[in-house]
Amino acid sequence: MRWIPFIIMAVLAALVIAVPLVRNRKPPMSRADYDLQVYRDQLRELQEDVERGAVTKEQEAAARLEIDRRILGVTDTPYRRTGELRKWQMAVALGILVPAVSIGLYWVLGAPGADDQPFADRAPIIQEAPISQEVLDFIAEQTAMLEINPEDGEGWMLLGRAHAYTGDFEDSVSAFRRAIALGLNAAGTQMEMVESLYNIAGGFITQEAQAAIDAALVDDPAHPGARFYQGLALSQAERTQEAFDVWISLAADTPADAPLWPFLRQSLQEAAQQLGLNLAELMPPPPEAAPQSPLEAMTAEEQMALIEGMVSQLAERLVEEPDDLEGWLRLSQSYRVLGLLDDAQEAVARAVALSPNDPLVLLQQAGLMLTASEDGMVPPEAAVIFRRALELEPDSAEALFYSGVAYAETDDPTAARAEWTKLLALLDPAGDAYAQVQMRMDALSAE
C-alpha cells in the first residue's frame, strides 16, 4: 500500500492548485520568459559568430543590446507586480504536471498486486522521466530571482514544487523549509513538504515529516492529505487500530467521486484484514459528491467571456471611484494579460497620477512601456521613469538594471557601468544574476 500516498498527494496538490485555472492559454511574451540559460546560450553563440566573422561589429552591437534587454526576466520579477501572472501559471502547470507524470509512471512501471519488499531490497523509488525544458528554465529563473529577493516565500514554495517535479526532493525540501520559515506554513505547504520527505525516506514517515503533518492538522484538522498521512504514520508504527480509526473517520468525509476514495478504501481493507474486522459493517456511507462549480462547467470560450466581463465591470466601477489606486493597478494588469497594452498603459497612468512617488507603481508603468516597445530597446520615457524610481528607491534592482541598459543603448558606457556597479553590490557574488550583470559590464569594457 505504500504506493498509494504518492498518487494521493499528487491528486490533492492538483485539486488545490488547478481549480483557479480559467482557461488554457499561453500568456503574452514578456522579458520574464527569457531565462538565464537562454541568455548565456545567445551570448555564447553571438561571440562564436563574431570570431567566425559571420557578423559585423554593428550587427554584434545590435544583437548584444537585444540580449541585454532580455535580462528583465532574470532581475525584475521579484519587484514587479506584473510578474505575478507567470508565477500563477507555473503553479498551475506544476499542479497538473506532477500528478499526470506520477500517475502515468505508476501505471506503466508500478505493480499494485506485488507483495511488500524489505526496504533494503527495494529498487529506487524514483524513475527517470523526461523533464520539460519549461520546468528547467523556470527553476533557473526562480533560483536567480530568489538570490535577489530571498524573502519571497511564495517564490520558495514554487521552487520547491518545481524541484519535486524533477525528482530533486532534497532541494525541494530545502525550498519548502524556507517558504514555511517565511510564514507560508498553511496545511497545503506543509503536506507538499511531507511528500518530498516521504520520497527521500523511501516511503517512510520521518520525524520531520511527522512534525509537518502535525502542523498541517493544527492549521486544518480536516485536511484530507494530512489525515491520510497521519494514518499511514500510525500504520508504519504498527498502531494499526489507530490508523484504521483515522482512516474510517476520513472515509466518512470523503465523497464517493473524490480521487482519494479508492486509495483510502484499499488502505482500510488492508488494515481491516490485519485487525480481523468486517469492513463492510464498519464502513460509513460516503457523503454525496460536491456539485460542479459554475466555472468548471464552462467552456474555455465562456470562461474567457466571464473574465472579460469582470474586467469591464472593474473599469466601470473605477469611473465612479477614480481614486482607487489598487483598482487601477489591477485593471492595468488585467488589460496587459488580455494583450490590450494601450488600455493597460492608460490605466497605469491613472495609478501614477494618484501615487506619483510610489516606486512600484512607477516600475509597473515603465515595464509596460518596455513590453510595448517595438524595437526591444528601452524607450526614453521609460528610462526617465526608471531613474525617477531610483531617486525614490536607490536599491531597486530593476531600476538599476534598466537605467544601465538605457545608458548603454545611448552610448554612455560610463553611466551604464556606474548603475550596474551599484546593482552588483546588491547581488550574491556566487549567483547567476551577478554573473550575468558582470558579463554585460565586461562587454562594455570590450567595446
Describe the protein in words.
- The chain has 447 residues and is mainly alpha-helical.
- It has 2 domains: 4-27 and 74-117 and 124-237, Tetratricopeptide repeat domain (Serine Threonine Protein Phosphatase 5, Tetratricopeptide repeat, Alpha Horseshoe); 300-446, Tetratricopeptide repeat domain (Serine Threonine Protein Phosphatase 5, Tetratricopeptide repeat).
- The chain contains 22 helices and no strands.
- The termini are far apart.
List key phrases describing it.
single chain; 447 residues; mainly alpha; Serine Threonine Protein Phosphatase 5, Tetratricopeptide repeat; 22 helices; 0% strand
Compose a concise summary of this entry:
The chain is mainly alpha-helical and 447 residues long.
Which structural class fits the helix and strand makeup? mainly alpha
Query: Tell me, what is the CATH class of the largest domain?
Result: Mainly Alpha
Quaternary status = single chain
Uncertain runs: 18-36, 71-88, 103-129
Count of helical stretches: 22
